[in-house]
Design brief:
66% helix, 6 strands, Pyrimidine permease RutG, 437 residues, two-stranded antiparallel ribbon, cell membrane, membrane, transmembrane helix, 19 helices, 4% strand
């Protein structure tokens, strides 16, 4: 397939042509009114995960939302407005950030700057990989990260996070039932809600769990009431609480390997958007990886989470058949404005712990379950011992948080699973191993 069929290659950005019905391609645009409505829809789609991820790591959600908008604009400019994507908080960082900072799971992370330094390190490694892709193409990534390995690493991340989710709903019986009720709301919305609402199970689950907790805790006294003092006092407009990174070798060594996951995520998303639009976007993959790496570095330098292209927004595009890149520029501007609203941030921070725990059970489980989708869609052959052993070892290393120490350096379960899967697969599929077979 041609890389850019239908695009005006004479200018850096497309000359977006007005089209108000049918399939809207990246270089086309809706009317400005439709653009605003559709852009807000993308804001809603990304908001659940982009807000929940920083809460799980003890980051400021205002700052995370702000930098998701900044990162999306960076991406928009570097890919010349030709690849429709939104960049939101990456869940791949959660386990390693918690491990690197010893975060207890409630309130601001006291070692936030340490985590930010590690995320900068991941962004730098990610950027180096993107430069190699620009120079040599994408083939080596597909050989280094075949579906068997990618799925194993994704599953290991989800399983590594399982104890965090369970702990968040285990303080008492009320918290447990609130968390499970939140899980149920998410499931019902995902399965039975009409139209667009079905695509917003996380945010609707958070809203439903919030009001359920409010009813039984504040209203009936079954749990600790939600304190609205900070929400009432917070101004509508104000500067976010920016935080600078500090650099510690252990944290960088633990967090930086997440770059491998971000590469795999971005590769999959670019392939998915290319398939939906009917044109190969492989020629923009190097730029997309570099844009994501730069956005991650910029976010971490100000207190935001690492970012990645969002499957949630790809789902909205699949449902609407509107791929105009202008929607994402508008959505990014809205996110930046929300980042400058302390009132919005205080509302997010008032979400009760057990509700966050219920969201975590679903989200972390979905991360692990995504591995099954990767294996099924790519027809991974588990009768092949190389695939089977690679996956088996990675799952146990991640779930059991197998830690390796090299002098002053420590690699946690995610890093062990990631590097272990990559190295083990290459060994088991080497020509010598194949000849022995």
């Amino acid at each position: 397939m041609p890389i850019a069929t239908g695009l005006d290659e004479q200018s850096y950005f497309p000359r977006w042509k007005l089209k108000t019905s049918g399939v809207i391609m990246p270089e086309e645009r809706l009317s400005w009114g439709q653009t605003i409505v559709s852009g807000l829809q993308h804001c809603v789609a990304m908001s659940g995960a982009t807000i929940i991820a920083p809460l799980l790591m003890g980051f400021d959600p205002n700052v995370a939302v702000l930098f998701s908008g900044v990162g999306t604009l960076i991406f928009f400019v570097i890919v010349a407005g030709r690849v429709p994507s939104y960049l939101g908080s990456s869940f791949a960082f959660i386990a390693v950030v918690i491990a690197a900072t010893g975060y207890a799971g409630q309130g601001p992370n006291p070692n936030l700057s340490v985590a930010l330094g590690g995320i900068v390190g991941a962004g730098v490694l990610y950027g180096l990989i993107s430069l190699v892709v620009m120079w040599s193409g994408v083939g080596w990534i597909e050989r280094l990260l075949p579906p068997a390995v990618t799925g194993a690493v994704v599953a290991a991340i989800g399983l590594n996070l399982a104890p965090v989710a369970v702990k968040a709903v285990s303080a008492n019986a009320f918290d447990t039932w609130t968390g499970l009720a939140t899980v149920l709301i998410i499931g019902v919305v995902a399965v039975a809600a009409p139209g667009l609402w079905r695509r917003l199970p996380i945010i609707l689950g958070a809203v439903g769990g919030y009001f359920l907790y409010l009813l039984f805790a504040n209203g009936l006294g079954f749990g600790k009431p939600i304190d609205f003092t900070q929400l009432s006092a917070a101004p509508w407009l104000g500067l976010p609480n920016f935080t600078a990174p500090s650099f510690h070798a252990d944290a960088i060594f633990l967090i930086a390997p997440v770059a491998v996951i971000l590469v795999a995520e971005n590769l999959g998303h670019i392939k998915a958007v290319g398939a939906m639009t009917g044109r190969s976007l492989d020629g923009y993959l190097g730029r997309a990886l570099f844009a994501d790496s730069l956005a991650t570095i910029v976010a971490a330098c100000g207190g935001g989470t690492g970012v990645t292209t969002y499957a949630e927004n790809i789902g909205v595009m699949a449902a609407t058949k509107v791929y105009s890149t202008l929607l994402f520029a508008f959505a990014a501007l809205v996110s930046i404005l929300l980042g400058f609203s302390p009132k919005f941030g205080a509302l997010i921070l008032s979400i009760p712990g057990p509700v966050i725990g219920g969201l975590s059970i679903v989200l972390f489980g979905l991360i692990a379950a995504m591995a099954g989708r990767i294996w099924v869609e790519n027809k991974v052959d588990f009768a092949n011992p190389a695939n089977l052993i690679t996956v088996a070892v990675a799952l146990i290393a991640g779930a059991g948080d197998l830690t390796l120490k090299f002098g002053a350096f420590t690699i946690g379960g995610i890093g062990t699973a990631t590097f272990g899967a990559i190295i083990l697969y290459q060994i088991l599929t080497s020509p010598r191993a194949q000849r022995a077979d």
